[in-house]
Amino acid sequence: MAPDDPWLVVGLGNPGPDYAGNRHNAGFMVLEVLAGTVGVRFKSHRARADVLEGRLAGQRVVLAKPKSYMNESGGPVKALCDFYKIPVERLIVVHDELDIPYGTLRLKRGGGDNGHNGLRSITKSLGGRDYLRVRFGIGRPPGRMDAAAFVLRDFSATERKELELGVDRAADAVEALITQGLDRAQNTFHAEL
Asked: In what order do the strands lie in the sheet with 91-97?
């Protein structure tokens, strides 16, 4: 890779105002913060995604929010990787994660999808799972609530009090992945509990 080759940062979520505040849209929320940092607006792209190109911490980035529903995220992500000629090693996917306590961040490369349909779709479309992930903890559903119903509900009033801080930290984690690499970013963001 050349030093100025771009990174592709994809935030996962569902399109439309009905889903905007859902737990499943944490990835979209983080991408909005990053867009503000880059200072460029999203525009519609033929890959079925809203996309912006710019610089984040001096590095070329393409930020994208697929316009497909979560379980069909793979098509737009693959199309963007192909269009911008971005290898899977320079792909960062930001998503909600049930198996992590609310507000906790975990960074990793590869691994399973843990039942996350967006990740499953991306892995299938790319033919591999060796992409970076910023996992935004949303916690487990209360009682016997179905996980699918839980992720499609808005964050609670209590959660919303800390949401902006968590989303900002996730945006900082994306920047750290790009500028410092996975190990150093993990040391910083996994230590913060």
From this structure: 43-45, 49-56, 59-66, 7-11, 91-97, 132-137, 105-109
pLDDT digits (tens, 9 = 90+) for 122-167: 999 999 999 999 999 999 999 999 999 999 999 999 999 999 999 9
Question: How far is residue 140's CA from residue 157's CA, in Å, rounded to a whole number?
Answer: 16
Residues facing 109 on adjacent strands: 132
24 labelled catalytic: yes
Q: C-alpha dihedral over 46, 50, 51, 52, to 10 degrees?
A: 130
CB of 134 closer than 8 Å to CB of 177: yes
The CATH class for the domain spanning 7-191 reads: alpha beta
C-alpha–C-alpha distance, residues 70 and 66, integer Å: 8
CB atoms near residue 190 (< 10 Å): 14
Catalytic residue among 24, 45, 95, 116: 24
Confidence band of 1 (pLDDT split at 50, 70, 90): low
Neighbours of 58 (CB within 10 A): 8
CB distance 123 to 78 below 8 Å = no
What three-state secondary structure class fits 86?
A: coil
Domain boundaries defined on the chain: 7-191
pTM for the model: 0.96
CA neighbor of 13 nearest in space, from 75, 66, 92 = 66
